[in-house]
Amino acid sequence: MTQATDIRRVRGRRPHLLDTALMLAARGVPPLPLRAGKVPFGNCRTCAKNDCGGRPNMKTPGPCRCTAPCHAWAAATTNPHVLNSPQWAAAWRHAAAVAYHPGGAGLTVVDLDNAEAIAWARDALPATRIVRTTRGEHWLYQGVMQSANAVRPGVDIKSSMQYARWLGPGTGPMTALPDVVRALTVKEPSTVRPAPQAITVPALASGGECRHRTPAYLDRGIAMAEQRITQASSAVHATVYRTFLAVLSVHGRCGCLTDTHIGRLFTAAQAKGESPRHCTDAWTNARTTLGL
After folding, report:
1. Nearest partner of 145 among 129, 156, 137, judged by Cα
2. Is the separation of the CB atoms in 60 and 285 below 8 Å?
3. Which of 276, 69, 68, 262 is nearest to 163 (CA)?
4. DSSP state, 171?
5. Rounded distance, CA 288 to CA 242, Å?
6. Collapsing DSSP states into helix, strand and coil, what is residue 47?
7. Terminal-to-terminal C-alpha distance of the chain
8. What does the alpha-carbon distance between residue 101 and residue 74 come to, in Å, rounded to a whole number?
9. Residue 109: is its pLDDT beyond 90?
10. Phi, psi for 257 (deg, rounded to 5)
11. Which end of the chain is more exposed for a tag (fewer CB within 10 A), N or C?
12. Distance CA 166, CA 25 (A)
């Protein structure tokens, strides 16, 4: 889609799912195939059954280390050669539906899952393009933001690093993403100060002061880690995990890292679209890998 608002209704009979995907890709909407149950395929042999370690409960902890994006929204692409490649042929043969990456198309989807959520949206949100779903409606806005689930009862936000099922172009003009939608993912600041989460590490065998306690050494390392995350243009999940792993491999055993240092890394990751939960999972997985 040359512009996010240029999605047009496909007339006539329902096309083959790959044809739908190619149509979306030609209009700048990154599609991907879905299995039954709205579950994505992996797009490489290692990830074919999601066995590469993309979630903590999989065989190998940590994010996917494959050379190509393999999971869910990260597999979406507008490249017709990739969509029509032999590697994807089996996925399309077994696909049950087509999904797309809203953030990659410059869109945000407000997923309204029931009648109560729809009534709330009609009262609280600016009118925009609406796509009917099985249980409710998708409200499409032009603009990208961080995705989040359960921002209120029956309401999810699908934009960056998320996928939504393609159910047609919808009806009505599309509105620019309003602040009231962005505010849905902003959490109220807690009035309870959390307990410090200090890293417990073995004492130095020599009993001397760790060289990492030199402020310039540690600050330079944290600044470089922040820069690496900030400059990531793709594979943000993997970049965040590997950066956390690198920081912990150097500073994780000496007790130099403080909540302030960890907070700087988490802030950089969240600015790239990572959720607090993803940051915590990546940090925990990195510590587990290093035996901390």
Report:
1. 156
2. no
3. 69
4. B
5. 13
6. coil
7. 47
8. 8
9. yes
10. -70, 135
11. C
12. 12
With a CB cutoff of 8 Å and minimum separation 6, the contacts of 150 are 156
**Structure pTM?**
0.58
Separation of alpha carbons 272 and 65, rounded Å: 19
Retrieve residue 21's tokens.
């995907």
Note the pLDDT tens digit of each residue in 110-142: 999 999 999 999 999 999 999 999 999 999 999
Closest by CA position to 163, among listed 181, 147, 185, 144: 147
Q: Do 109 and 151 touch, CB atoms closer than 8 A? A: no
Q: Residues 187-233: pLDDT tens digits?
A: 654 444 444 444 333 333 334 445 555 667 777 788 888 888 888 77
| HSE (side-chain half, CA atoms, 13 Å) at 214 | 6
Instruction: Spell out where 81-147 has E strands.
Output: 97-100, 107-112, 129-132, 137-142
